[in-house]
Amino acid sequence: GGDAPVTGGGLTYAINQEPQCVDPHATGQSVTSSVARPVVDSLVWHDTASGELRPWLASSWSVSADQRSWTFVLRTGVTFSDGTPFDAAAVRANLDHIVDPRTKSLGAAGVIAPYYRDSQVVDAHTVTVRLKQPFASLLVQLSTVAFGMQSPKWLATGGTELCTTVVGSGPFVMQGGWRKGRGVDYVRNDAYDWAPPGAPHQGPARLDSLHIKLITQDSARIGALTSGQVDAVARVPALDVKRLEGTMRVLRAEAPGENYSLFPNTASRVFSDVRVRQAFRGGIDWDNLVQRLFFGAYRTAAGPLSPATRFVAPATTTAVPYDPARAGQLLDEAGWRGRDAEGYRTRDGKRLTVRFASVKAAETAENVTLSEQVQAEARKLGFDVQIVNLPISQVINNAQRGTYELMATGFSGPDADVLRKLFGSDGVAVPGRMGSNIAKYRNATLDRLLADAQLTTEEPRRAALYAQAQKQVVDDAAVIPVYAAGSLIATTRSVDGVVFDGEASPSFYAATRSR
Amino acid sequence: MLVVRDLSVTFGSGRHRVDAVRGISLTLRAGRCLAVVGESGSGKSVTARALLGLAGDHATVRAGALELDGTDLTRLGPRQWRRVRGRLIGLVPQAAMVALDPLRTVGREVAEPLRLHRAVPPADIGERVVELLTDTGVPEPRIRVRQRPGQLSGGQRQRVLIASAIACRPPLVIADEPTTALDVTVQAQILTLLDDLRRAGTAVLLISHDLAVVAQLADEIAVMRDGRIVEHGPAARVLTAPEHDYTRRLLDAVPGRGGPPAPPPSAPVVLRADGLVKTYPRPGRAAPLRAVDGVSLRLHAGETLGVVGESGSGKSTLARLVSAMVAPDAGSVELDGGPWHDLSERERRGRRTEIQTIYQDPLSSFDPRHTVEVILRHALQAGGERRRTVTDLLDLVGLEHGLARRRPALLSGGQQQRVAIARALAVRPRVIVCDEPVSALDVSVAAQVLRLLVGLQREHGLAYLFISHHLGVVREVSHRVLVLKDGRVVESGVTGEVLDAPSHPYTRSLLKAVPAMPPREAMR
Amino acid sequence: MRLVWSRCGHALLVLWGALTLTFLALHLTRGSVVDAIVGNNTQVTPAVRAQIVQDYGLGRPLWQQYLSYLGRLLHGDLGTSYQLQTPVRAAIAEQLPPTLQLMGLATLLAVTTTLVVAVATARRPAWLRAPFALLEVAGVAVPQFWLAILLLTVFSFGLHWFPAFADGPAGLVLPAVALAVPMAGILTQLLRDGLERALEQPFATTARARGQRERGVLVRHALRHALPPALTIFGLLLGSMIGGAVVVEQVFSRPGIGSLLLTAVTGKDIPVVLGVVAVTATGYVAINLIVDLLYPLLDPRLKD
Amino acid sequence: MAVADLPPADLAVLSGRRRARGVGPVLAAVFLVLLAVAAIAPGLLAPGSPDTTSTADLLRPPGAGHLFGTDQNGRDVYTRIVHGTRDSLLAGLAATALALAAGIVVGAVGALGGRIADNLTMRLVEVLLAVPGLVTALLIVAVAGPGTTTLIMAIGFIGMPAYARLVRGQILQLRGSAFVEAAVAQGLRPARVAVRHIIPNAVPPVLLLATIGTGAAIGASAALSFLGLGPRPPDPQWGAMLQQGQDYFAVAWWTATIPGVVLTLTVLAITTLGQHLQRRFDGGNPG
Ligand SMILES: Nc1ncnc2c1ncn2[C@@H]1O[C@H](COP(=O)(O)OP(=O)(O)OP(=O)(O)O)[C@@H](O)[C@H]1O
Ligand SMILES: Nc1ncnc2c1ncn2[C@@H]1O[C@H](COP(=O)(O)OP(=O)(O)OP(=O)(O)O)[C@@H](O)[C@H]1O
Ligand SMILES: [Mg+2]
Ligand SMILES: [Mg+2]
């Protein structure tokens, strides 16, 4: 960059996963945020630099004393790309669309539906969102793409096209919708004049057009970048980072939410004993694994939450040291003293077996490598880790029936409320109902801490509650944090101005591409 | 016109070396016919191909001289050779049934040499093809040109081959076994055709293993054996006063010149068939084919009943009916006065050994994985035999013991046929159905097999149902004859009567077609 | 005419069988359809789940779902994708062309290579023939996806000869080659063997004796004899090409029926799987029908 | 998978007559003997453990110490290849055996069981051929859960129709042959005829298809591994190695290339030897 920014031209960005439905309200996939973000704006802007929540399409807001009514004053002069003006009715239409069961929302609805009562249009540019119970995370949630503002006229069509095209007020306009297996094209929205205040610039985007292309295979995607067939790629494998850094620009951002972690099934025979969980966590040198296997591309996790998450506790309170000797002791104490012919620990003649359920097809190569390394390291402790690859529907079935000891996941969420999904008692899956508490962890104290954190918007108070909660799950070894996952993207050197938003999705609003 | 001196052809080298032709010399003048005779494998076809430069990939051809109309053929390059083939020398290849491309129309096949050698302007090719087919006596030539070889009879195909060979009016025509595997009637027509060619001034090199055939046509005869010419001379002389022992043996082997065997003493009927009918469905709406249509016969112990008839007249079908391999649509067969067809397969199984069949193509009747020994051992087991051994059987049919360990595929045709006979005899049958037992064999071998069959009959009192399209063969072995035409018996009776004084015109036409040999002055 | 009817009936039977088998197998897989649709989105509300069950009729007994599927199929309605939430017919209509292009070009490449190589090497000296023979067997032996990756790495990323991800025809080349190699390998072996067999037939000697050149014997006589068996195999290979297409599309990140199928099967997107099976089974039946019809053209004896 | 689809008559064409002599079959045999040793006693060729990881030795290129380099977990690729032989071959062999057994049963029932049985089995075979093999495989894996056993079942199932067709064709053809007629004429019971003549003659072409099919099955198991349906980690099956290695292709070519080459060579060797043996068999029985 430097002098006069280059404008015009097109940029092709290759992503690794196909969005099944690009409607950000309906989708449950995080990849959709990269696809929808160029098109939709949000009410609130999450300033990653300061961690603050700042105005965007809402120019100001206030919350009632009972924490149940949020009133937003909207920015004027904003129009959706189909000409529909952005106003209070539009906000209401968006929120109503999210919670409407017919939208079959797999993501956003789950976040807000338990709280949302309705939205009331106060005047053309003032809207009040009324809640059934306090939900302090509302603001930060509204900053996510899942709550991005789409044209109410478009939403009203209600057809299946909503899954292929998004019509919003963003700096780009989708052309022709998502083409399955291929990607999607955008052109600049020339009328755009409502970028968030902290954006690199104001006014229309600099690129004439943007193209998102689907290249699922990692090596192919990197090859496409290095051979000049695309300008930017998502999800750079850690392995390639060093190699690319010489010739390309590698950009990274840690995603808010939970770190990539292993979850012991605390209801399982093996891991119901906290000592066994602690042994598994403390007996493996996670830092070494992460730094070696990922070639320094990611930071080793120091607790359940990623450093980019609001209200993450200081590492000093949640980090656990590597201590294999202590791990051995713990296992002995827990009764796993015997050893069988293959060197695995046994108790009452039964082997210390850990079924590690995973959906290989959906895993990155790195995580697969990691899981095999964990298998090898755990073996040294006497664990027989069996990696069971299953299709997603069967993993879910197993999760409900509890037929696993270990599962891995990274769960994104803008603030520490993600803990409630992960460890709240009502998140435990039972037959017929899936849940996100795959550790099957139940703790009334924790439940209370997390519920209380939603009752107040006072940030220090919330931070304290969340810190306590994080310490709780760490002490109980309900989670084995591994690394802070994030967004690793690479662009050619001619691309400039790509930044990350609060969800670690790249924003091409200010991007330029010189020739 | 054609001068061949010291021609030799070898295949392969070292251990695998085969000397197929070992220094033969021939000359042939326009309007003359030279016949090359000799048993199978004597090198006749190889000679023919060598004259066209087509001896094969692995062949080494050497010749003192190879001249055609003064051109030295030994000096020709591939391109010049192509100009000789079809234009200067026409070849009528062996195996008429497969020598035409089954996927192309007859017209295109005949036109090919015309086109390649630009013998006539392209526009006239069609007319010329029709003309050629007419000349060679192919009926309805305008229809035939659009048909494929599969739609033509064997004789017609042979004529098409001749038409194609003479299309460019080559001065020399080589006809390699032009009549084997053809019915006698058709054979006669082909020989006439070749004779016409010769009269018109073409030099004809006729190759055959059958002296009776060449007797009709040849001006000169060369007798080949093991790649050498053992006797060469004017036809009349060679046929009537052969000098070489081998020639004499060949002449002796020509069947049908002895009288029919004496009638056996009267004996009981072993096999009796009455009003047998077998129909086969035909594609489309056509009425079903009556392959066997009301045939009745009696076969006495120790007797041979000959069945003759053209190809397709139902002979093999009759054989399969008699041996209960197919069920008749009507009529019945009795064995030893008892029921045979009316038995259930289970009941019949125990008595199956009483009727055995010797097939036209013996090789396919052997399990390809089994050795001669295994085949015969199984047969002995099937016959419940205790006393005789495989060696006894080999002795019976005059086979060397060493052959027992070979698989039939590695035996010669005559040897294969002997194994087939041995297998049939192993189960001590009462009746043997011989379906064209010698038609795949060359004359001298055929004669041996026939002698064997006759001898065995005398010794064991076997009854034969002897099927053949070759009247000479039938005459030599049969006591009585049955003439089949289109599935019906048109004439039957004692061999001598039927074949010497036929009453039915069909029988007469069959007989007339049999090539006659000039009487020989025995010079033993 | 009767033949045509019985052929169609036969084809319908095969189609029905294929669909029924797939339907049953899909339902036999563990885990409920709703779970598969929801996937790892663990925070889905009960209302949404209920809506999914209702929209897709998942609450009904299996036999009702089966019958209603067949019923709708009779009206040409392939249903709606669970995952994509778009009509299956539209999804297939969108994904079929790229796959057909891919398979079309691959077939063209395979057939051309086969004809050229087989004709050029039939009955030629070993030094000419052996390398090709080895390549052919190797072409069949090499794992297709690995070959695809190799091609991609070498010719697209390394040598920059072909773009790998362009929508245009240039982007089609490498995937088509990857798909064509095994097919060409098998067909070339077959065709050359057929040619060599035919060249040893007596009719080939007859043609040579007429003055026909070796090339002429090959092209005018032998080829027609060698083609029919190659054609049968060609039909079968075409039918099973879809499996290769899945792999190749995956490696090259190409849109197409293969990718559609793969995600649908793992995601239990039953209407899509059934739709794809319906298409491929129809394709299989149609190809075999065409082969059967072509046969008499190559070998007119079959008409008689 | 493709080769296993060949119909009988044409299979003979495919395999029967390549006259290539030379060292091909010898090399193939030597290679297969090596593989057999690796399968039976991997420790002889590679004493180490295939699962020993070393985070200090990730993706080392081939060289001294690591003949074929190391993989993304720092495991020795050579050791893994050797120790993976048994599973990789077993998958192909077992799948082929399964396909063969099922195919023989279905084919024999079709050929010998009368018109209705014939119609039923052949329609079934057609239906199975009409469903893309991959779909069938994916479905089987989805029903039975992944792992080597399922993989074998799936590939075996896909291969079955080809064998069924071949067996049926062979039996029908042999039943009409002259030598079977000759055996019947000697009064042999049908069971005897079947045991003595039909089965032994039907077996060689079926076995030939099986040799080619084994190669195809090994390849198919690799392809299914590629699609994520492979064996359980850390089993060093070649297909799985290949699949994992491809993610590292640009940086560490050897992780994918070596299993790919070994896999190709194996299939090549099996096919070459199978064709050679068939040729030998044919040589004894022209016609
Ligand atoms: N291409 C070849 N390679 C090796 N040997 C051959 C070849 N062609 C012919 N022979 C051998 O040459 C010898 C002569 O064969 P040829 O075909 O000339 O016999 P023939 O006299 O025509 O017999 P027939 O009456 O059976 O046609 C035989 O031993 C045969 O096996
Ligand atoms: N299984 C069958 N199905 C249909 N038609 C048949 C069958 N077997 C024989 N025919 C037909 O029955 C007729 C008589 O055949 P058959 O084999 O008995 O003749 P043939 O006298 O033995 O002839 P050739 O001398 O050629 O052996 C022929 O037209 C033949 O095509
Ligand atoms: Mg000959
Ligand atoms: Mg006959």
Automatic annotation (TrEMBL), chain B:
<comment type="similarity">
    <text>Belongs to the ABC transporter superfamily.</text>
</comment>
<dbReference type="Pfam" id="PF08352">
    <property type="entry name" value="oligo_HPY"/>
</dbReference>
<keyword id="KW-0547">Nucleotide-binding</keyword>
<feature type="domain" description="ABC transporter">
    <location>
        <begin position="271"/>
        <end position="511"/>
    </location>
</feature>
<dbReference type="InterPro" id="IPR003439">
    <property type="entry name" value="ABC_transporter-like_ATP-bd"/>
</dbReference>
<keyword id="KW-0067">ATP-binding</keyword>
<keyword id="KW-0813">Transport</keyword>
<dbReference type="InterPro" id="IPR003593">
    <property type="entry name" value="AAA+_ATPase"/>
</dbReference>
<dbReference type="GO" id="GO:0055085">
    <property type="term" value="P:transmembrane transport"/>
</dbReference>
<dbReference type="Pfam" id="PF00005">
    <property type="entry name" value="ABC_tran"/>
</dbReference>
<dbReference type="InterPro" id="IPR050319">
    <property type="entry name" value="ABC_transp_ATP-bind"/>
</dbReference>
<dbReference type="GO" id="GO:0015833">
    <property type="term" value="P:peptide transport"/>
</dbReference>
<dbReference type="InterPro" id="IPR017871">
    <property type="entry name" value="ABC_transporter-like_CS"/>
</dbReference>
<dbReference type="InterPro" id="IPR013563">
    <property type="entry name" value="Oligopep_ABC_C"/>
</dbReference>
<dbReference type="GO" id="GO:0005524">
    <property type="term" value="F:ATP binding"/>
</dbReference>
Automatic annotation (TrEMBL), chain C:
<feature type="transmembrane region" description="Helical">
    <location>
        <begin position="102"/>
        <end position="122"/>
    </location>
</feature>
<dbReference type="GO" id="GO:0005886">
    <property type="term" value="C:plasma membrane"/>
</dbReference>
<protein>
    <submittedName>
        <fullName>ABC transporter permease</fullName>
    </submittedName>
</protein>
<dbReference type="GO" id="GO:0055085">
    <property type="term" value="P:transmembrane transport"/>
</dbReference>
<keyword id="KW-0812">Transmembrane</keyword>
<feature type="domain" description="ABC transmembrane type-1">
    <location>
        <begin position="96"/>
        <end position="295"/>
    </location>
</feature>
<dbReference type="InterPro" id="IPR000515">
    <property type="entry name" value="MetI-like"/>
</dbReference>
<keyword id="KW-0813">Transport</keyword>
<keyword id="KW-0472">Membrane</keyword>
<feature type="transmembrane region" description="Helical">
    <location>
        <begin position="230"/>
        <end position="252"/>
    </location>
</feature>
<dbReference type="Pfam" id="PF00528">
    <property type="entry name" value="BPD_transp_1"/>
</dbReference>
<feature type="transmembrane region" description="Helical">
    <location>
        <begin position="170"/>
        <end position="191"/>
    </location>
</feature>
<dbReference type="InterPro" id="IPR035906">
    <property type="entry name" value="MetI-like_sf"/>
</dbReference>
<keyword id="KW-1133">Transmembrane helix</keyword>
<feature type="transmembrane region" description="Helical">
    <location>
        <begin position="272"/>
        <end position="295"/>
    </location>
</feature>
UniProtKB/TrEMBL annotation, chain D:
<dbReference type="GO" id="GO:0005886">
    <property type="term" value="C:plasma membrane"/>
</dbReference>
<feature type="domain" description="ABC transmembrane type-1">
    <location>
        <begin position="85"/>
        <end position="274"/>
    </location>
</feature>
<feature type="transmembrane region" description="Helical">
    <location>
        <begin position="248"/>
        <end position="270"/>
    </location>
</feature>
<dbReference type="InterPro" id="IPR000515">
    <property type="entry name" value="MetI-like"/>
</dbReference>
<dbReference type="InterPro" id="IPR050366">
    <property type="entry name" value="BP-dependent_transpt_permease"/>
</dbReference>
<feature type="transmembrane region" description="Helical">
    <location>
        <begin position="89"/>
        <end position="112"/>
    </location>
</feature>
<keyword id="KW-0472">Membrane</keyword>
<dbReference type="InterPro" id="IPR035906">
    <property type="entry name" value="MetI-like_sf"/>
</dbReference>
<dbReference type="Pfam" id="PF00528">
    <property type="entry name" value="BPD_transp_1"/>
</dbReference>
<comment type="similarity">
    <text>Belongs to the binding-protein-dependent transport system permease family.</text>
</comment>
<keyword id="KW-0813">Transport</keyword>
<keyword id="KW-1133">Transmembrane helix</keyword>
<keyword id="KW-0812">Transmembrane</keyword>
<protein>
    <submittedName>
        <fullName>Peptide ABC transporter permease</fullName>
    </submittedName>
</protein>
<feature type="transmembrane region" description="Helical">
    <location>
        <begin position="26"/>
        <end position="45"/>
    </location>
</feature>
